[in-house]
Amino acid sequence: MIDVILHGLLAAAQAATPAPVAATLQAQFDAANTAYETHKCADAIKLYDALEARTVGTKNALLLGAVKVRKGICVARSGDNATGAALIRQGLPALTRQATEFAADLRDAHMVLGTAAFDTFDYDAAASSYRDALAIATGIDRIAPLLALSRTLAFDRDGKALAYAQEARDLAVKQPGIGKDVLALIQTRYARVLLNEGKKEEAYSVLKDSLRKQGGLDQRVSTSEVATRADLALAALLNGDRQQAQTYMAYTGAGRMKDDAFAAAISMKAAPCGSATGLKPDDFAVVEFSVADNGTVGAVTPIYTTGGRDVALAFARAVSDWSWSPTESVKIPAFFRNATRIELKCSTAADRPWLGQPLSEAFDGWVRTRGHQQDWSDVTPARAYPLVRAEATRARAAGDKGALLAADAWLAYSSLPTEAERIAAAAEAVALARTMQAPAPVTTYLALAEIDADRSHYDQDVRRRTALLTRPEINGDPLSAATLRMMLANRSYPAAPKAEAEQLIAAVVASPLPENHPLKVAALLRQADLLAQRGEVAQARAAFDRTGLTSDQCALIAPSPVVQRSGATSNLYPTEAVQMGFQGWAQVEFDIAADGRTMTQRTIAAYPPFVFGEAAQKMVGATRYRSSFRPEGNTACSANVQRFRFQL
Q1: Is the distance from CB of 146 to CB of 157 less than 8 angstroms?
Q2: Beta pairing, strands 624-625 & 297-305
Q3: I need a labelling partner for 250 at 20 to 30 A (CA). Which of 190, 532, 629, 634 fits?
Q4: Is residue 361 domain-resident?
Q5: Are 103 and 31 within one domain?
Q6: Confidence at 333, pLDDT banded by 50, 70, 90
Q7: Structural domain range at position 293
Q8: Whole-prediction pTM
């Protein structure tokens, strides 16, 4: 019926076109539909594009709607759900008026719309579209929307997700000839809902049955087998069977890659605890995601959480903002990059600017006065990177110096470009600033970028920063001079001699910067520490009082904690992880007491899940930091974060 309708509409469209085109138009139409129906989407998209171009002006809304919807479905199948959904929305009204004839297209279209909404964490819209798909589907075709609904509603814990998953399972069991692997995957999805409903024992039993259907723990690893084994690891952990959890995890292949490129993320900010997210420090989640060739994160799916939907979404949104450099992301084997899992908790840490932040703000303010209004701060680094490169190319061709300077500075400071690209961007930025007669804070900011961009001369960083202080325009600028002195005083390698550090800190304290300037406050805190170490407690108290901080407050820009004794040791590498060949990492958040001890250690992210978190916490517990002066002996600084890599 559908083909008859579309062929009739096509004939009407052809009647308005010159005769020589008609035959090829008909052939294109047939070829496009054949490609669509056989899932050869690259060919179908090209053919539908050509059809749209040749039927411009036609009034056959149904024909155009069918082309839009089918093209959109193919675009989504090719990996671009957002664009596919936009195309579908254009054609959907026309097809909806012929719902009976276009039932299959409408079902697939609503599934794409649901997935596009799910990917943007609009679970209400996703559930609505999946229900529309379910209303059209019959028989075995109901399984896909049922599973999609169970995934979307799994954290609501009102029984609806479980009912959808149960129906999908029942349909699969009754379907003649359905493969054991397919049935196992459906059961695994059902068990995942059971876990989130708190029915952990039943979930464990169902997952074990799924594993049996897949042939047990063998060396074969498919995507469905990885899902079952990973869920079994989670179920085993929740049921108190930690050793078995690690065994199941080992058979997913996670943490057993030659190079642990998952640890090389350049941006991995944890979801913050608090009222803005609804997350509490004890909330826990396992989130699955993929990493694209360009380092962006996609297909973010909460697997399990101790909280409800809002908690699951808060963790998922945080992961969606992570970034890898393109050179590192492609090192991750594609099989694991397409779906990996991380265990997560929220962070109690406040964002603390780096020492160069005041210079960065001065640079941004000055560039805006030169006509540059572009802001990439709200875009994840991996997504911003190609945008910044394109802007640099445009600005260079247009002679737009302000825009080019901003793009070059972004590239010079980013970890995403290659070293050669960073060096070239920094050099161009320095030259541009010179021709634009930029003020000292801008030239200092860019000069520091030029130093940092060239990692091959890391051992010369101290000399080069010291040389900047000899330049009259930089030494005479309070902000530039204070920034450089704090960097030199706080350097960790090679560490600044105590006498030199004292002189540098004293110069910042005596600078004409306002008393409450973040850099001066940081200098006063460091000066109080140095005085206390010499036994000059009264002078240390006076320096601390000048900061305006209370005894339990941290500075906006605080001196970096200095390790006196590291707790990292191979002796704490988990024995089970060694036996199973696990490699990975764990990110631990902790407080530092005034005497340098660490407290309240908690793992906020770890890969693979359930393996290295406890060992990393022990390493933090055994670490000692340089003591800090606090008048009442309170915590020196709260919510510090350290990532430990575990490599065999």
Answers
A1: no
A2: unpaired
A3: 190
A4: no
A5: yes
A6: confident
A7: 261-344
A8: 0.87
